[in-house]
User: Which sequence fits this backbone?
């Protein structure tokens, strides 16, 4: 996956976790937690979704990399480089 | 031949969940959604554990633990259950305190408590802000040595009345005392203060019905009246199977929602564990238990709104031991109006008190019966001031004790809220002792209550998923 595709994967997960948030203006270099209400359970959800969708294991000590969109994509890039981007749902 | 409650159950599952409390249910649902085959076994004839209800003649339905939970349940139910479940959660706005020190109504959120603390109790606004901020900042990784008593003393020295306002509801909610770590107080209190106290419209029976339907949609195999007697481990201590109703069911992982100490000491057995771990488990203190009195008015009769949740006490000051004593001076009344179960016309009252198992466990049958009757009588006497003529108007009255809670949920000593703080560490470390065995259930004070149990179910499901997901091949 490319950086853009990874970004989209994260956006889709965030939209699922926080359906009431407007994510269109999300700034990539500002921590998620400063732009939306995310608690520790939400971060757990991100980790679980990534494991479910792409079988990537993120150890607890790496959660710190999931602070901003930019740092998250950078962290995931090597892990997802050989993974196909998810097919866009039809319609 | 007795009925086979395990009829149709396969010989092997990815995961067996022992117990259907809210943590067990949520772990089962989360793992089934993640694609695992899941078998849920509950010894009782009803799902829910402490999140339960019972029906009596004339159609009365009593809820046991539906007195109120924090707003966080809305989000957790939406994410880990269904939108429909989340949409049934509604606020309880009338929280009342009646005691020798003060008499007040509140919505039990930060804004209203700030008003009360500054206007009624004369605390400077900066102190109140600092207190709320300090409580909200607390998390599991913080200093665990400061006690709740010391925490209050920092902000409100010598203010027994303020301590009562801040502590009494939390003691009722999870059995914690001033000697428990301040972080357990800060986390639970802040959860409530974010938006107030909430309940489930439709009642506990409706919640559990909806949860069951969702689990079935996700493919969880559910069996009631199925007592797990043993968790089988191999020579490497890995989980192999559970034994339930005398039958072996193989599995790759087990989530035990049974009491932490029983899971380790009875279901696994200490011969399979490190000596130190066994000692640490033994040293975990169980939380206190409860007594309740259930009162239903005659069909057609009702009372004016007197609040939803009422913390009543005749005791001077906050006194944890007095709250546990059989010589009851403090009670929490939950008033249920017909709108809790849309379509119903019933008014019910549940009175709850914290209680000690040993005060009830060793009575002769005759003493036990008399003590229960005394509990009912004193409760009705007390209730008279809020609902006049209650004795004549009551259609059904009965009581439960720590022995009742022990019988239905199998928790040792009828522990209502799991274990004290140290239980959380043991619960988290269990999979290191026995690979494949996970505990999810009320522990450590912060993981108890409806919200704590649901969230802990998810946290543990995540650990199970990690354990069962083979590491990816890295090139
Ligand atoms: C009187 C009272 C009032 C409460 N009020 C509130 C409230 O207003 N708000 C709130 O948030 N919380 C409240 N609580 C606390 C809350 O109900 C509990 O913390 C929560 O429901 C516990 O869930 P749990 O997952 O830990 O499991 P539990 O509810 O303890 O369930 C464990 C389950 O495991 C089953 N089990 C045990 N051993 C076995 C075995 N060997 N085989 C098969 N099954 C087994 C039991 O039968 C039980 O169903 C209250 C508790 C009590 C007692």
Assistant:
């Amino acid at each position: 996956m490319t950086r853009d595709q990874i970004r989209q994967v994260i956006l889709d997960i965030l939209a699922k976790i926080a359906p009431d948030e407007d994510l269109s203006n999300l700034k990539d270099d500002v921590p998620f937690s400063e732009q939306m209400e995310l608690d520790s359970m939400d971060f757990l959800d991100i980790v679980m979704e990534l494991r479910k969708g792409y079988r990537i294991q993120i150890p607890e000590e790496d959660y710190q990399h999931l602070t901003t969109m930019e740092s998250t994509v950078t962290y995931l890039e090597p892990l997802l480089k050989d993974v196909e981007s998810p097919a866009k749902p039809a319609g | 031949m007795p009925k086979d409650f395990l009829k149709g159950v396969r010989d092997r599952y990815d995961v067996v969940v022992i117990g259907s409390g809210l943590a067990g249910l949520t772990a089962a649902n989360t793992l089934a959604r993640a694609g695992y085959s899941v078998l849920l076994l509950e010894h009782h004839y009803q799902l829910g554990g402490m999140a339960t209800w019972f029906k009596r003649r004339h159609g009365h339905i009593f809820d046991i633990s539906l007195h109120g939970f924090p707003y966080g349940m809305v989000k957790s139910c939406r994410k880990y259950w269904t939108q429909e479940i989340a949409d049934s959660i509604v606020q309880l706005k009338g929280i009342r305190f009646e005691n020798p020190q003060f008499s007040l109504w509140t919505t039990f959120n930060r804004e209203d408590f700030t008003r009360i603390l500054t206007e009624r109790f004369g605390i400077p606004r900066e102190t109140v802000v600092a207190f709320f901020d300090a409580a909200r900042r607390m998390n599991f990784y913080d200093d665990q040595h400061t006690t709740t008593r010391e925490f209050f003393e920092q902000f409100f020295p010598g203010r027994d009345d303020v301590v009562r306002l801040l502590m009494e509801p939390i003691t009722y909610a999870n059995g914690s005392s001033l000697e428990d770590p301040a972080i357990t107080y800060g986390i639970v209190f802040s959860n409530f203060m974010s938006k107030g106290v909430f309940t489930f419209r439709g009642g506990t029976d409706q919640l559990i019905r909806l949860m069951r339907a969702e689990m079935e949609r996700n493919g969880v195999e559910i069996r009631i009246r199925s007592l797990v007697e043993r968790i089988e481990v191999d020579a490497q201590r890995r989980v192999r199977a559970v034994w339930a109703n005398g039958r072996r069911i193989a599995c790759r992982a087990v989530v035990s929602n049974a009491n932490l100490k029983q899971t380790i000491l009875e279901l696994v057995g200490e011969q399979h564990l490190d000596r130190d771990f066994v000692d640490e488990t033994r040293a975990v203190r169980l939380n206190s238990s409860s007594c309740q009195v259930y009162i239903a008015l005659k069909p057609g009769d009702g009372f004016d709104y007197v609040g939803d949740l009422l913390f009543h006490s005749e005791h001077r000051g906050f006194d944890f031991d007095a709250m546990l004593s059989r010589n009851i001076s403090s009670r929490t009344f939950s008033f249920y109006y017909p709108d809790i179960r849309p379509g119903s016309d019933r008014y019910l009252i549940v009175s709850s008190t914290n209680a000690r198992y040993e005060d009830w466990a060793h009575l002769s049958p005759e003493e036990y019966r008399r003590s229960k009757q005394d509990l009912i009588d004193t409760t009705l006497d007390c209730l008279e001031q809020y609902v006049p003529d209650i004795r004549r108007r009551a259609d059904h009255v009965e009581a439960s004790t720590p022995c009742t809670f022990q019988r239905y949920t199998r928790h040792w000593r009828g522990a209502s809220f799991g274990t004290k703080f140290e239980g959380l560490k043991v619960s988290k470390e269990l999979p290191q002792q026995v690979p494949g065995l996970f505990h999810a259930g009320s522990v450590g004070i912060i993981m108890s209550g409806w919200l704590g149990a649901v969230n802990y179910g998810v946290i543990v499901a995540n650990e199970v998923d990690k354990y069962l997901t083979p590491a990816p091949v890295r090139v």
Summary: The longest helix of chain B spans residues 449-468. DSSP finds 18 helices and 18 strands in chain B. The first strand of chain B starts at residue 12 and ends at 18.
